[in-house]
Amino acid sequence: MNFSLPKLENSNDFEELIRDLYAFKFKNPNLQRYGRSGQQQHGIDIIGIAGKDYVNNANIVIQCKNHVIDIDDKIICSEIDSELAQFNKSSFQKDDYNFVTSAKNSEKVINHVQNINILRRKNGLKLISIMFWDDISRYVMSNQFLFHKYYGDQLSVVAPLVFKIPDAEVNTRKTLLLTLSDFEDNTKASHTLPKLKEICISNMGEAYKPTQPYNLYLGISRNTNITFDQKVDLSIDASSYFNDENNLEENYKNLVKTLNQLMIVLQDSFFSKRLVMFSDLEINFALIIGKILRKHRFEVDIQFKEMFLTSNKNDIAKCQSQVNETFLPPILVSDRTAEDLIFVVNMTLQTNIIPDIMTYVKSWTIPFLFRSYGILNGNRVENSAHASSIANDIATKLQNFQSLGLKRIHLFIAAPKPLATLIGHELNTLNTEIHLYFRSLDRTTYLKTGILKNNTFGDINL
């Protein structure tokens, strides 16, 4: 987000916020307010008195100072000294001490805390920590629960987190069933256009307006048993491009060319530049179709569980992505400079693909970097706005790695497939090759299906 959270005026609300924040931070739901204003609190406002810190097996002790207006660094340092002196006389002095202030981040205050910790280390005491409003604000904006609980009624939102797809009132549609190979030949593809228009007009009935471009409902599946019949105007079977694992890269090129032909057909002025999509796709196919939709300047609304995700940012509010890099030990296969990056999007609720990828690449002899990204809230895509921000964040990271001198990014994705489509739609100019991998049909290894970069496919300029 491009703004800073306003401070909470009420000190009681501030302490409640900090209690909730640390409950998430330390995975301890048992944090409690310690006493009340006017009582002897020994420099303590919040404590894990009903349970232990689930991470470090130690009680949590927190002192809160709500500095709504700017305050001099010397005063904050004096407050730290005063509150810590009380804490050192209490029965909790062996517990972890956290000083939390809504003041701005200060180098002088940090240095003061470091000097305190030097003395505490010499005396065998636990070190203390400090958190400023910058840290608090960043954490709150990355946590949907905290953000909406404390700021839902204070921040104006001009667009919703979810949205309504166009023409949703048309519940049952006649469906034109085709295969993707029907679009390989230009002449054959053009013959489908009149019939498709006829079905679209029929599906809208009296709601059809010739003066308005038609919002096409499109279904694409790699499974012959899934047709999206009566849900979409056009349902396309793409299964033939995935049946032969021995020719994946050639099939991948043909797949992209044919998808490009489909989009050229849909460029007809009859159709709007907005597609409503239902899909059952391989993860790489989902990403590629998003990239091709962007190339042809289509916006896409794509079904995900009981809602739709959208590439159209005008329909949804800004939202924090919560995308976070997972710590992994460095992988060194030589002392040469790495020009390759293994980039893992690990965003499913139950599957961790890291061990399988580590096994897959263990025989590689090239030097490479390794990055894995998940979502802080447990890999849950919460709404359309959240999905859009995740897609933007991941696409930005992929594009930013170009500046590090990397020549190849090896992309492994475990994520909702509609989310992969949005990631593809966010990808702009690519100066680094993106090598695409997905699990084999028997789920025992990974297969490379192709390379995505500018001009990869000759006259098809992605």
Structure summarized in a few sentences:
This protein has helices at 11-25, 73-88, 107-122, 133-141, 144-151, 186-204, 248-265, 283-295, 354-361, 384-400, 417-426; strands at 32-33, 46-47, 60-65, 96-101, 128-131, 176-179, 217-221, 234-237, 274-280, 299-304, 307-310, 323-326, 340-346, 368-375, 408-414, 433-439, 446-452. With 462 residues, it is α/β, with parallel strands linked by helices. It has three domains: 11-151, Trna Endonuclease, Chain: A, domain 1, CATH 3.40.1350; 176-313, no CATH class; 317-452, Rossmann fold, CATH 3.40.50.
Strand content bin: 15-25%
Compute the average pLDDT: 84
Shape: elongated
Write down the domain tally.
3
Question: What is the SS-derived class?
Answer: alpha/beta
CATH topological fold name of the largest domain: Trna Endonuclease, Chain: A, domain 1
* DSSP helix fraction: 25-40%
Main features:
462 residues; alpha/beta; Trna Endonuclease, Chain: A, domain 1; Rossmann fold; 3 domains; six-stranded mixed sheet; 32% helix; elongated
